[in-house]
C-alpha cells in the first residue's frame, strides 16, 4: 500500500501505463499473427504487404521500449525469412 502522495500517484500512473502498454503489445501480437496467416494462406503478395505494415508496428513498439530492440529485430528477421521462403 502506497503511503505517500507521491507513491499513490506513481501507483495510479503505473495502472494507466500498464493498460496502454498492454494494448500496444496486443496490437503487436495481432499484426504478427496476420503475417503468419497470410503466409499459411499462400498469398505472397498479401504476405509481403502485411509484412511491411507489421515491420512498422514492430519498430514503433521497440522505439517506445515496450519490447527490446533485439526482440523486435528477431521478429522481423523470422517473418522476413518466412515470407521470402514462400514459393
How would you portray this structure in words?
Binds directly to 16S ribosomal RNA. Residues 1-22 are annotated as: Disordered. InterPro entries: Ribosomal_bS20 (IPR002583), Ribosomal_bS20_sf (IPR036510). By secondary structure, the protein is mainly α. The chain has helices spanning 5-41, 44-63, 69-84. It has a single domain (7-84), classed as Methane Monooxygenase Hydroxylase, Chain G, domain 1 (Up-down Bundle), CATH 1.20.58. The longest helix is centred in the first third of the chain and has 37 residues, at 5-41. The protein is elongated, with a radius of gyration of 17 Å.
Structural class: mainly alpha
Q: In CATH, what is the homologous superfamily?
A: Ribosomal protein S20
Question: What is the tally of beta strands?
Answer: 0
CATH topology: Methane Monooxygenase Hydroxylase, Chain G, domain 1
Indicate the overall shape.
Answer: elongated
CATH architectural type: Up-down Bundle
Major sheet characteristics? none
What pattern of helices and strands is seen along the backbone? Answer: HHH
Arithmetic mean pLDDT: 96
Q: Helical segment tally? A: 3
- The low-confidence parts are none
Overall number of structural domains: 1
Strand content: under 5%
Radius of gyration: 17 Å
CATH class: Mainly Alpha
Measure the end-to-end span.
58 Å
- The helical percent reads over 70%
GO molecular function, one term: structural constituent of ribosome
InterPro entries: Ribosomal_bS20, Ribosomal_bS20_sf
Function: Binds directly to 16S ribosomal RNA.
Protein name: Small ribosomal subunit protein bS20
Amino acid at each position: 500500500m502506497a503511503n505517500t502522495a507521491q507513491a499513490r500517484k506513481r501507483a495510479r500512473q503505473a495502472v494507466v501505463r500498464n493498460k496502454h502498454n498492454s494494448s500496444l503489445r496486443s496490437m503487436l501480437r495481432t499484426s504478427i499473427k496476420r503475417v503468419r496467416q497470410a503466409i499459411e494462406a499462400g498469398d505472397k503478395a498479401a504476405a509481403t504487404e502485411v509484412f511491411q505494415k507489421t515491420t512498422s508496428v514492430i519498430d514503433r513498439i521497440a522505439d517506445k521500449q515496450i519490447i527490446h530492440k533485439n526482440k523486435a529485430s528477431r521478429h522481423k528477421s523470422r517473418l522476413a525469412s518466412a515470407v521470402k521462403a514462400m514459393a
